[in-house]
Amino acid sequence: MNIFKFKSFFVFDFRRYLKKESIIAFLVVVVILQLFIQYGKNTYLDILKSSEAVQKVEEVKVTQYSLYRQYAAFGIILFLIPSDFSVLFNNSTFEELLSTVNTAERLNIYKSFKGKEYFIERSGYLNFMGILFLLGVFFALTYGKNTTERKDYLKSFSTFSGFRKVFWARVISRLILLNLGSLLLCLISITPLLIENINLFRCASIPLFLGGGLVFSVFFSGGCVIGQLKDRKKRKSRILGFSGRSFKLIVLGLVYFFFVIILPLIANIFIKVKANDIEPLFEFDLYNLKLIQKVEMRLINRFGVLEAGEIPKKEILKAIEEELEKALENEFKEVRERENQRKNKVLRKIKDYQTISSFISSLFYFSICEEVSSNGGLTFIDFYTFSQLNKEKFTEFCFKKLYSGQNLPDTGKIENFFKKKEDGLFFAKSKLPFNFWLGILSAIFYVAILLLISYRMFLNRVIKGDPGKIRDFGFNINRFKFNYLVTADQGLKNQIYNFFSGSGFTSVDIKVDGEDLKQKGCIWLCNPRYIDDELDENALYKALYGKKPDEGIKTWEIMFRFAVENSKGRVIVLDNFFKGLKGKEVEEILRVIREEDIVSLYIGDNYYEAEKLADDELIFSLDDTSVDATKEVAEVLKKDM
Q1: Given its phi and psi angles, is residue 369 left (phi above 0), alpha (psi -120 to 50 degrees) or beta?
Q2: Which pLDDT score is estimated for 113?
Q3: Is residue 207 situated within a structural domain?
């Protein structure tokens, strides 16, 4: 029997998204994310306004200078304009990043991130992508845990379609829905930005959503493993004070806290320590200053100090120009090489950090966010290079003006270094982090490994199961009779399931009307409330019968009717099926069992219910201590034996 297909499970879970509670929760998240979208948008627009202000200031400054010497001393300001994707991940580290350039060979980037200082301040979670990460990871872990932890539900469906198909159809359908849900959430959140002419529906969004979806898939797969963890006993721990049912939630919380908070913190500390071998900024600038002073002293010793307003002779001017050209090829070149060495060392540290991040999903997520939003280290390096190039051009520009007779008052208007207003602006572009595809492959590998681990645990826990301590237990069940096995021992239940399914260890021997089973097989029905928690009656009926149900039909009725109709050659096992049902509903089930040509076995833990309903003697093992009443009866029987 192969009833449930991938489409069925996809429809089951999709209908859960359409429930009123799910829609309300989704809209609440949309509103929360929209607040951070608006904050990011305002920050981005403020940066654009600041860039316009800087441009105006630069224009006004040039008109105030009377000498190129002043222009050279005060220098120019270069301003970084981030990609519009920074709306999603507005890193406070890079807000209004600018650099000052002058002829003193001191390239100053504000905030001061020319060396290890870049690694000191890392972005937090107070932005759209950060909040999406916090909520998304928690939901993915919880969603994954709920996908695999309901073993009774999975065991029932496995008898309809086979355990492999049930597991993989359920997991993959939920994995797809998780990614579709997060994608829809992002699309709804960024659509209002079109009003502000901020269009994020571009190719750069693909790696952002691809990487984010894979990271959420990793945590979903981890949740699937958590859901398969063995249940602890119900008694409370005297030391920790939590019940066994809380064990999985505690594990989930620890995993969430470690990967979301602790691991990124450890990685940041590690990279800061690794960055300590970069020369401190003030020592770096002091060495550069000594090189420049060396040039100045050489010029003073050779040519002396000019008096105010004194015009040097042409031959002296030419000699000074030659001396400066030598300085450009020596001391100034050394300064530039030191800048390049420093930049390359920072770049290596950034690449090291991003390589480490490619193996750690939570860090990989933020590496993608930083680079796509142009708030990452690779953008910083590009801005550093942009500043260096403008530094060289500005130095050459000023020297030509200084020693061409144009450095005197009233010799004409000071020429602006920037030919266009935009020349002082660095328009950052979205980038991919270093080893991006390594991170993608790592995430895919983690998903595959975690799901395979979860699948193996599923086989051991749900299909094979722990056989418990009860051994060599045999009993007989009769056709047209209500046969009641009294037990709460999960190991015994697993052995019975293994007996009928032919998988896993079993020491039980079950006969029907005193004869061995000619064909093993069963339809295992769990309590209807486990089904109700997962899907509604309409979805269940449509999956089983391919059409809409009659109004008022209930889950238990659908399950039992379908089991009876497909029970040929198979035993119907009802596992605590009556819990939560009304008296008339129980009577209807008993009537069908006693009148139809079917073989059934009811497994329950209510001794007094069993005495009242069973048609024959109660079935229980003398070694079973899971139910107090049967334990007492067993002790009496053992004494009489």
Answers
A1: alpha
A2: 47
A3: yes
